[in-house]
Design a protein that fits this description.
Chain A: It comes from Cryobacterium zhongshanensis. The structure holds two protein chains of two kinds. Chain A is mainly alpha-helical. Chain A contains 16 helices and six strands. In chain A, strand 1 and strand 2 form a beta hairpin. Chain A is globular. In chain A, 47% of the residues are buried. Chain B is an all-alpha fold. Chain B has one domain. Chain B contains 15 helices and four strands. In chain B, strand 2 and strand 3 form a beta hairpin. Classes of the chains: A mainly alpha, B mainly alpha. The interface between A and B is large, with 47 and 42 residues.
Chain lengths: 351, 338
């Protein structure tokens, strides 16, 4: 890959940002990259980043596909809370909270309810034709109320070893939540990139009307995408709840929709729909989680994290904005003036 | 809104025709439905509780929601141009924090209040420039502003700061008597003034007409030679100003600054505007409708308080349900016209 192609790649800025964050961490805390094995489990800052970033990444994968169809899903935080509330209330209500059977039932019911919520979002967007931001705003507003209704306003604390495994267990030394995130990421990547599904999703995002006339069943695609988003939100909700061993309808997944959207945007997927990059989303989620970790290691008060998030979003948006790109393009053309060959090459790579 | 009431002298059938066409027009329909809804909600409250339909209860609706009215006015401007502002709740919290911390360190109220309004307007200006110059979606630009404002709140202080400044305390406690047991606060007067100014600006000024024109079609507005760029930035300045003012009114209400106040208020403001009949795609809507929307939300809250046994989270479910009904209604009304 030559320099100019690397420069214009959508992954260029996010990766640079991640590397910068890694270097800051390494300077502040020399043991940043060290990994060690304690009691057969992997430990280290990088493992922490992966583990804490897993819920955001899982939701961001669903969000990427939604955004690729020119949509947005604001309800994921509320779905997280509902899934956690449902699972915890089932476990608490059963005579044997510690048995694997109970936990399996709780998880399956929570996921099924999430599927119904996703179908509802998809129905509003695809069948009634309501703007996605508003259609999902309804569930975002009402969903937390519903979660409070399920928990009856209490924080449900569960003591169930099998349930705890989802959020804080280890498989072969690797945290279970990371394994789940990898499975979902890989499944989404294979399903959309090894089949035509990804192409169809992009075509709906670029021009819904044209793709409909070309025979793409946009309605079914949209419903599928929103259902998948709710499904992944529910999985993230289960991980969060299990990690805290408690369902807190008010705070589980609060603001996680914003983190997920940020991850997608930092990853270079345009909110205007169309081309998307799951790899970019992965990098974006890592950037966000590393940023949070950096704030801790550098010694800035953690409460200031949101200011840094605001700075990162603004910087990435400004760098990716068409106005900045055009300015960059003009600048590089003025450098290459007098050499016709390079000029055409630049123009091709800019467009 | 005047069509169905002022044209009474025509024959009954024509009146009926006019009323029904007003109800089904995308411009007036949602507002009229909201008005009917507000009356219905009041009737329900009045039939269930003694003393519900009384002067003090109605006036308290304004007292409790003065800040939300101001927020909804700013949001109406933004949504009329087809944009959205997610930062209003965080900016409101930020202005309560600035007020509380500056007053605590001995600044006078006559400096603090203008300073807050200038700062929040500048924040709005930056957001507007990001949206217009850098072509960043309003959703993301205001999301960044929301993070920034919330983060700055935490940077100022994690804890709640109480306000003891005499000017703020007297503004908070003075009740303007309207005779009998009825009284309002200074906040209500300010909020109603904001509504009046917004109404005049939207309907009787060039700026207002340009706002509607951008919502109807930005390209056409530009071709007509309207100052689209300036107006698009200006609506975010207006929304920032309104958020700052709402923050000041909120401190009159609570006499404290706290970084976690008004989490989710942006949703209430958007819900009030939508329930008040402003089309989310822009172009149609009224400030007075948004006020009606705030009153509907406030009345539901009051009913839930009167009920006592219903928990407060039912409010959110009701708001969600109402949003759905009104969005579907908008969809049906605009689809029929096409």
């Amino acid at each position: 890959m030559n320099a100019s192609r690397m420069f214009s790649s959508r992954l260029f800025w996010p990766v640079v940002m991640l590397l910068v964050l890694f270097i800051i961490n390494l300077v502040a805390f020399p043991g940043f990259f060290s990994l060690e094995v304690k009691n057969g489990h992997l430990f280290g800052s990088l493992v922490d980043i992966a583990r804490n970033g897993a819920p955001t990444l899982i939701i961001a994968v669903g969000m990427t596909l939604v955004i690729a169809t020119r949509g947005i899903d604001l309800s994921v935080g509320a779905v997280c809370a509902i899934a956690g509330a449902v699972a915890c209330s089932i476990i608490l209500g059963s005579p044997e909270p510690g048995s694997i059977g109970t936990v399996a039932v709780a998880v399956i019911v929570a996921l099924l309810i999430a599927l119904v919520l996703g179908l509802w979002n998809g129905f509003l967007v695809a069948v009634l034709g309501i703007q996605p931001i508003i259609a999902t705003l309804i569930l975002m507003t009402a969903g937390r109320g519903a979660a409070m209704l399920i928990t009856e306003g209490q924080i449900l604390t569960v003591n169930s070893p099998p349930f705890k495994v989802i959020g804080s267990g280890f498989v072969l030394g690797i945290p279970v939540s990371v394994v789940i995130a990898v499975v979902i990421f890989t499944a989404a990547a294979l399903l959309t990139r090894r089949t035509a599904l990804g192409l169809l999703i992009e075509s709906v995002g670029i021009n819904p009307e044209a793709s409909r006339q070309a025979g793409v069943r946009s309605r079914g695609l949209l419903i599928t995408v929103y259902t998948f988003s709710a499904f992944s939100a529910a999985i993230a909700g289960l991980i969060l709840t299990s990690n805290q061993t408690a369902a807190d309808a008010n705070n589980t997944g609060l603001f996680i929709e914003l983190d997920a959207i940020l991850a997608v945007v930092i990853g270079g997927t345009s909110l205007a729909g169309g081309r998307y990059s799951l790899l970019g989303t992965l990098v974006g989620a890592l950037v966000i989680q590393t940023l949070v970790t950096t704030v801790y290691t550098v010694g800035i008060p953690p409460i200031a994290t949101m200011v840094f998030k605001a700075a990162v979003v603004t910087a990435v948006c400004l760098l990716q904005s068409p106005t900045t790109n055009a300015a960059f393009g003009r600048w590089r053309r003025s450098l290459g003036r007098g050499r016709p060959g390079t000029r055409t090459a630049e123009r091709a790579s800019v467009s | 809104m005047s069509i169905d009431t002022s044209s009474a002298p025509v024959a009954g059938r024509r009146l009926f025709g006019r009323v029904s066409s007003a109800f089904t027009s995308p411009k007036y329909g949602p507002v009229l439905v909201t008005l009917v809804l507000l009356i219905a909600v009041f009737a329900i409250g009045g039939s269930r509780y003694r003393g519900f339909v009384s002067g003090p209860v109605i006036l308290n609706l304004f007292v409790d929601n003065a800040y939300l009215i101001v927020l909804a006015v700013g949001m109406t401007f933004v949504i009329l141009t087809g944009g959205i502002d997610l930062s209003v709740g965080a900016v409101l919290a930020l202005s309560t924090m600035i007020a509380a911390s500056l007053l605590q360190s001995g600044w006078s109220a006559s400096v603090v209040i203008p300073l807050i309004l200038v700062l929040t307007s500048v924040l709005g200006l930056l957001v507007g420039l990001m949206i217009h110059v850098f072509k960043i979606q309003p959703f993301i630009a205001t999301l960044a502003a929301m993070f920034l404002a919330r983060g700055l709140c935490y940077v100022i202080s994690k804890d709640s700061i109480s306000i003891t400044d005499p000017v703020f305390v007297s503004l908070a406690q003075t009740r303007i008597s309207l005779g009998g047991r009825m009284s309002i606060t200074a906040s209500v007067v300010i909020a109603l003034l904001v509504v009046l100014v917004a109404f005049l600006v939207l309907h009787y000024s060039r700026l207002g007409r340009t706002v509607y024109a951008i919502g109807g079609g930005e390209q056409s507005g530009m071709l007509m030679g309207l100052p689209v760029a300036r107006t698009k930035v200006l609506v975010y300045v207006i929304s920032g100003f309104c958020s700052g003012l709402a923050g000041v009114l909120f401190t009159f209400y609570t006499l404290s600054g706290y970084s976690l106040t008004a989490v989710g208020t942006e949703l209430d403001a958007i819900a009030a505007v939508v329930i008040g009949g402003t089309l989310l795609t822009g172009g149609y809507g009224f400030v007075l409708g948004s006020v009606l929307g705030v009153l509907v939300l406030g009345t539901i809250q009051t009913i839930i308080t009167f009920e006592g046994t219903l928990s407060s989270w039912w409010t959110r479910i009701f708001i969600g349900g109402l949003l759905l009904v009104f969005i579907v209604l908008q969809k049906v009304l605009t689809a029929r016209r096409r």
